[in-house]
Amino acid sequence: MKAAVMYKPGDIRVEDVPKPEVKAGHALVRVAACGVCGSDIPRMLSKGAHVMPLICGHEFAGFIEAIGSGVEGYAIGELVTVPPMIPDVTSDQYTRGFPSRSEQYDYFGSRRDGAYAEFVNVPLSNLIKVPADMDPVAASLVDPAAIALHAIWKADFKAGQSGAVVGCGPIGLFVIQWLRIMGAKDIVAIDIAEEKLAMARQAGATHTLLSGASDTELPRCQLVIEAAGHPASINQAVQLTKAGGHVVFIGIPTGEVPISTATFSHFLRQEISLHGAWNSFSAPFPGDEWTASIDKLASGELQWQFMITHDLPLDELPSMFKRYADRSEVAAKVIFRP
Q1: What's the average model confidence in pLDDT over 7-30?
Q2: I need a surface site. Which of 57, 118, 137, 265 has the fewest CB within 10 A?
């Protein structure tokens, strides 16, 4: 089968590799669409993965090609989406209802081969049916939509309150839409690219700001989601929060994160609550975040077409990642199809 194999950061080759044999307790899924996650970019260009060579890619959906022994309730040809984490079901965090917090876990595209390939073996626990008429690209976006919702649910957000997102990649764009669906009064969006801010307005943002500009005229918000992972955006997210509000951090920094005295003072004196949000899962695995995201993507209440800036064959993956490295074009959501 065809796959994009990372031998080391920056060394990505599309080549023929053996097609996996379906395993007991698994289904062989023919990948229909796999999106690029923000975490894929440093993984494939600078940081590397837990094991290499590796086939990356974890935001995916596809059709069941073959069914292994012990798998019931699924049929060949059905469309499925795949939660990328395989949690440790024996861990205390899993048994307490927090699968995302498992310390020992497996993960498509970072700890085991993922979906920048034609076929992937998926365990029964990670097969999630979606409506047969759902677009496979929409099905591949359930993971980022669920990550956005998981983050919002970390805080007690209510209709009529104001919310914000700093970083308008796909997760940030889904945050905006969830806030709109939940009845937010004002929705603030901040990003470094005007193209992303245009998408934020399309998603439902009522106020947009180019990163680096003064935010003094923006409303202070009860909930701010930080989805960029940059030190400047982390500080700004805290200072954008109103007294007694909540900041939820999704963005993954690649370096140290200095906190300014002004940021710390605001967090301290205004009694801001800071939350970390990791992945998209709750109990029973994969959680209500996934159920809700599938429903809203299938119904069209969560829009996704506007954020797809690149829809490419897998052969173009190395050149696209080179453009990421060169920062030679703006990309919101990139989809690869084997």
Answers
A1: 98
A2: 265
